[in-house]
Amino acid sequence: MNSNTPYKVNKADVVFEKFDDEVVIINLDSGNYYSLEEIGFDIWSLIENGASLDTIVEGVMSQYDSGNAEEINRLVSQFVAELREEGLIISDETLKNKGVKIPDNQTERKATLKKPLSNLNKMVLQKYTDMQDFLLVDPIHEVEYTDWPKS
What we know:
This protein has five helices and six strands. The protein has 151 residues and is α+β, with helices and mostly antiparallel strands.
């Protein structure tokens, strides 16, 4: 996958909600749900805006005290790959010419200084499988808005 290829949320199978500094994500296809905090929250915000891997890495380095750029690139690449493997995000070539800008999460999250690089250890996709049966039984996610209601 090209590092300039933009990503977007897989809205066909995924719903999410942001709460202060956490994102809760549900994969309606697998029944798994996830939690992202801190740096994961920031990366998800970039992906919501159609950012490529290069833009995501740039965004992380602009918000965190960047030490080793290669290490940051490696960790962010692994994290984005994990989001793709879980079916939470997909690549979208149609977003290439949209000129995605890095959102100012420092204002949004009331941060005044760059966050410490030690927060990279908090780039964790917390996965929960305890509600799979319940989420997979729910028929709501199987109905297209155009299919219901029919008169």
